[in-house]
Design goal:
The complex is a heterodimer. Chain A is mostly helical. Chain A has nine helices and no strands. The radius of gyration of chain B is 18 Å and the shape is globular. Classes of the chains: A mainly alpha, B alpha/beta. Bound molecules: adenosine-5'-diphosphate (ADP) and magnesium ion. Adenosine-5'-diphosphate binds next to β2 and α1 of chain B. The site of magnesium ion has 4 residues of chain B, from α1.
């Protein structure tokens, strides 16, 4: 307890930095991941391939390696970023791959027939996505996207390795000064747990708010082969 | 598969004038991999004409409809709508596609939108009509298919027959030059089939150009102007409904009719 009282400004800085890393990384990942998902269902083969390669790379590199590569590799090619932004970049690149996959599988839960009906009334690729596919897919994406958020939050602790003063880094520093490892890491654990639970709660609220109450809606030719596949054919020869 | 259905009113000698070809299919071939789903199809559908497309399952009827609406690309040949060839892709295709409406076997209503929004989505987002105008039009169309009171219902709150009628209103909202129906009543319970066929008959009588894939032989015989019979990716025979049903010219058509009219 004494430790917390004595070092609370430092701890608060750590928690604040954790939140900043997570929110920035997640928001950028949402943007990038959505763009990647649109590429993955687009009618243009090179875009699809590029997005697939991206996902396979960034989903499979351990975040720690990625962060170290960014922090210590980028300067070698002449790009010097503050370590905080290296952390944001690493979290963004990694989480975007997961966002992309979740959005894509959300899109695939929408029956092909809905996309075809939308095309038959004259909507183009983006119109079909925006007015017909995504509004339906969104509900199934909320929980997976909350999971990505929690992954980003937990992942942000790895930024300690590149000396960003977030919660874990602060905890390590205090441990060096006070040698109270168990207590300190319990405190850090409580911080991460609280933030995760908060995110999960927000996710449930969002999910309830967007629930149209009609997931059982019939429609779509046959089993849901997924609108994504059919969207790919949208303009293909 | 029933011939029992009689149309609501006996068919008047049609006052409508069948016009120039509106949809022209010329030498169209469609491959899925090595498999030919359509081989060298020639078909004209004229203005105000109502054509029944019949044939066994797997004969290529849906594929033909989907090619006319470019939901599938064709491997060879040409399809023109009102003289304009359908382009492979792009904005031009998107525009032309809405000239031909499509009604699907499984309705494919957008489940997150109320009936009125299903109908007004195209006019608002494609034709850029103001919301109020699009909705007023949508209400008119829902009235026309007998569903004025269901405008605010989500598709899940509607029966199959009602959903299909909303789907017809949705297609009409784009003011298409022609409508394609791909087995519009095949997913319906028998007791609601007629409510959909009645709407289609009314459209036919008001001069809508229609291509109707159907197993409702009563409808084909009494409402359509022409019957086209497909088998194994080809058009085998076509003609006046009376002629086709009473005196089919080909053995394949005779076999097909004897199977479906057996009881
Ligand atoms: N997307 C597809 N890929 C491969 N084969 C297909 C595809 N769509 C249809 N086919 C095949 O083409 C043939 C004609 O199908 P279809 O046009 O649906 O027949 P119908 O509507 O007359 O029952 C069938 O043998 C079917 O298996
Ligand atoms: Mg079919």
């Amino acid at each position: 307890m004494q430790i917390i009282l004595e070092y609370w400004p430092l701890l608060l800085t750590g928690i604040g930095t954790t939140i900043a890393l997570t929110l920035l990384g997640y928001v950028f990942a949402l943007v990038l991941g959505t763009a990647l998902a649109v590429c993955r269902v687009s009618p243009i083969p090179p875009l699809r391939a590029a997005a697939t390669v991206y996902v396979e790379i960034f989903r499979n590199i351990p975040l720690l390696s990625l962060l170290i590569l960014i922090a210590f590799g980028l300067p070698d090619v002449g790009l010097v970023l503050p370590y905080f932004w290296c952390g944001v970049l690493g979290l963004t690149l990694s989480s975007a791959a997961f966002v992309c996959e979740n959005i894509r599988s959300g899109i695939n839960t929408v029956p092909i027939g809905h996309a075809e009906a939308a095309r038959s009334i004259g909507l183009g690729f983006f119109g079909v996505l925006r007015f017909v596919i995504l509004p339906q897919a969104f509900r199934t994406m909320v929980q997976p996207l909350v999971n990505v958020f929690i992954g980003t939050l937990i992942g942000s602790s790895l930024c300690a390795a590149i000396t960003v003063t977030e919660t874990t880094y602060v905890t390590q520093q205090l441990n060096i000064r006070t040698a109270e490892a168990v207590f300190l890491f319990l405190v850090a654990g409580v911080v991460y747990l609280s933030l995760s639970l908060l995110a999960a709660w927000a996710g449930r609220r969002i999910e309830a708010a967007v629930a149209p109450g009609d997931r059982r809606a019939r429609g779509g030719d046959g089993p849901a082969r997924g609108a994504g596949l059919r969207l790919q054919g949208a303009g293909q020869a | 598969m029933n011939d029992a259905r009689e149309p609501a009113a006996p068919r008047q000698p049609s006052p409508k004038q069948i016009g120039e070809p509106l949809i022209s299919v010329r030498g169209v071939t469609k491959y899925f991999g090595d498999f030919a789903a359509l081989t060298d199809i020639d078909l004209d559908i004229r203005e105000r004409e109502v054509v029944a497309l019949i044939g066994a399952s797997g004969s290529g009827k849906s594929t033909l409809c989907r090619c006319i609406n470019r939901l599938e690309t064709i491997s060879d040949g040409e399809i023109t709508i009102d003289g304009e060839p359908l382009p492979e892709e792009g904005r031009e295709l998107t525009r032309l596609r809405s000239d031909v409406g499509m009604v699907f076997q499984s309705f494919n209503l957008f489940p997150h939108l109320k009936a009125i929004d299903n109908v007004s989505l195209g006019p608002r987002k494609v034709r850029r009509l103001p919301k109020a105008e699009a909705e007023a039009r949508a209400v008119e169309l829902l009235e026309r298919v007998g569903l004025a009171d269901k405008a605010q219902s989500l598709p899940t709150a509607l029966s199959g027959g009602q959903q299909q009628r909303v789907a017809i209103a949705r297609a009409l909202a784009m003011e298409p030059k022609a409508l394609l129906f791909d087995e519009p009543t095949s997913a319906l319970d028998p007791e609601v089939i007629n409510e959909v066929l009645d709407v289609m008959q009314e459209l036919a009588e008001r001069g809508m150009t229609m291509l109707v894939v159907t197993h409702e032989m009563g409808f084909a015989r009494h409402v359509c102007d022409r019957v086209v019979y497909m088998d194994q990716a080809e058009i085998v025979e076509q003609g006046e409904p009376e002629q086709f049903f009473t005196a089919p010219q080909t053995q394949r058509a005779r076999d097909f009719l004897s199977k479906i009219l057996a009881h």
